[in-house]
């Protein structure tokens, strides 16, 4: 296996993957999050490792067990802000960044240090926007290859292409999470992959492991020949 990895299509490449759903604290016992299971991101981390890459997996809330391969560096984070900090601190030595995580778009403006007690009949939570991690890195992109995900519930192609351009990505993986066999929590996914010129790959329902391999093969082809 070692020898295979040494000549794998991603050998010598540093791949950073984000996975899971970020947790935005309201107080010590309550939070805002989303339905991301982390399965897609963990599958990408395993596949990248199998293809020879040096892998860092930045994981927010997930039910996935830590990867068995000790060569995959696992970094646990909670909030969008902590994910941003971890990604930025590793950005300069990254060849490929794959943002499979579902990052909260808004977080509570105030996070209480002590459990909030109930009082009136209604309660208003003020939310503020989080930093868009991909968008901010897309602006300072050097040689890094950036891959985003777009989980949509309709018009996936339109929204995915818009995100690809807006965030200056090299590839975007679009899926319609309202389709059976796609999206959060499932072991399979149905994805279409786009670049700035349009559709690159339309995959039938496939395991997340297979989607990960196909995606990384595309990335490897596209960065090959580029030395840094
Ligand atoms: N993303 C990010 N930082 C954020 C929000 C999203 O890096 N604060 C990344 C996600 O990890 C994903 C991509 O951007 O790879 C698209 O996320 P998505 O939620 O689909 O896009 P948004 O731009 O947040 O748009 P919307 O939620 O309104 O569809
Ligand atoms: Ca979002």
Automatic annotation (TrEMBL):
Domain DNA/pantothenate metabolism flavoprotein C-terminal residue range list: 10-219
Reactions accelerated catalytically: N-[(R)-4-phosphopantothenoyl]-L-cysteine + H(+) = (R)-4'-phosphopantetheine + CO2; (R)-4'-phosphopantothenate + L-cysteine + CTP = N-[(R)-4-phosphopantothenoyl]-L-cysteine + CMP + diphosphate + H(+)
A Gene Ontology term for the protein's cellular component: phosphopantothenoylcysteine decarboxylase complex
Pathway where it operates: Cofactor biosynthesis; coenzyme A biosynthesis; CoA from (R)-pantothenate: step 2/5; Cofactor biosynthesis; coenzyme A biosynthesis; CoA from (R)-pantothenate: step 3/5
Keyword field contains Magnesium: yes
Keyword Endoplasmic reticulum assigned: no
Cofactor: FMN; Mg(2+)
Record GO biological process: coenzyme A biosynthetic process; pantothenate catabolic process
Cofactor: record remark: Binds 1 FMN per subunit.
Keywords: Decarboxylase, Flavoprotein, FMN, Ligase, Lyase, Magnesium, Metal-binding, Multifunctional enzyme
Single GO molecular function: metal ion binding
The protein's Enzyme Commission number: 4.1.1.36, 6.3.2.5
Biological role stated in the UniProt entry: Catalyzes two sequential steps in the biosynthesis of coenzyme A. In the first step cysteine is conjugated to 4'-phosphopantothenate to form 4-phosphopantothenoylcysteine. In the second step the latter compound is decarboxylated to form 4'-phosphopantotheine. Catalyzes two steps in the biosynthesis of coenzyme A. In the first step cysteine is conjugated to 4'-phosphopantothenate to form 4-phosphopantothenoylcysteine, in the latter compound is decarboxylated to form 4'-phosphopantotheine.
The protein, known as: Coenzyme A biosynthesis bifunctional protein CoaBC
Organism: Paenibacillus typhae
This protein's encoding gene: coaBC
Positions spanned in the full protein: 183 to 410 of 410
């Amino acid at each position: 296996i070692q020898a295979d990895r040494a000549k794998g299509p991603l050998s010598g490449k540093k791949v950073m993957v984000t996975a899971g759903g970020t947790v935005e604290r309201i107080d010590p016992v309550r939070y805002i999050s989303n339905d991301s299971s982390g399965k897609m991101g963990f599958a990408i981390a395993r596949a990248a490792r199998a293809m020879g890459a040096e892998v860092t997996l930045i994981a927010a809330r997930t039910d996935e067990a830590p990867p068995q391969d000790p060569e995959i560096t696992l970094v646990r984070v909670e909030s969008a802000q902590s994910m941003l900090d971890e990604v930025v601190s590793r950005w300069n030595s990254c060849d490929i960044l794959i943002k499979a995580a579902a990052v909260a778009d808004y977080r509570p403006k105030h996070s209480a240090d002590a459990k909030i007690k109930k009082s009136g009949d209604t309660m208003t939570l003020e939310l503020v926007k989080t930093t868009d991690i991909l968008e901010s890195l897309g602006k300072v992109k050097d040689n890094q290859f950036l891959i985003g995900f777009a989980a949509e519930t309709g018009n996936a192609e339109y929204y995915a292409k818009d995100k690809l351009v807006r965030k200056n990505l090299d590839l975007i993986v679009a899926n319609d999470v309202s389709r059976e066999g796609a999206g959060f929590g499932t072991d399979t996914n149905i994805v279409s992959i786009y670049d700035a010129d349009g559709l690159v790959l339309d995959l039938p329902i496939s395991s997340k492991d297979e989607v990960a391999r196909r995606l990384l093969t595309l990335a490897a082809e596209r960065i090959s020949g580029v030395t840094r």
